[in-house]
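Priority: low. Protein: BAAT/Acyl-CoA thioester hydrolase C-terminal domain-containing protein. Input follows.
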Amino acid sequence: MALAYYGHKDLPEALNKLDLEYFEKAVTLLRTHPKVKGPDIGILSISKDMVIPPTKYDESKAVDTGYGFLDAAQWLRDHGKENFEVIRYHKAGHFLEVPYMPHCPITFHPAIGAVVAFGGEPQAHAEAQVDLWKRVPEFFKKHLNNDHSDFKAML
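Result:
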């Protein structure tokens, strides 16, 4: 499920404040969906502006770092959390979309309202996309304490 949280229909135009109750409603909706094994829900964010570790939903885990993923990782450790991973992809760009999406090193960013450089080299970015998206289901399987013995990554 992709969840818009600003700039769409009746949502705020700009991201000035993160409304965690909005995300809690989404988690509640997912927990009642017949295709969700639950009870735990994994959350994944692909931007380093907001780090939400892909692990059990807990509103205290949303970290507005402002300084990057290493600060977020330290914040999590400082709060007794160890069920996260930091993976660095040198030479990859800022956003690691699903595999085989075209590399876009420069684009208009609606949250900022300006053109931004996401950087990265095309080959390294593509390799990082494939590697990361193979890791995500395995991470969820390991940390969500759900029985996914029949689950296999689709990549």
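The first strand starts at residue 106 and ends at 109. The beta strands are 106-109, 114-117.
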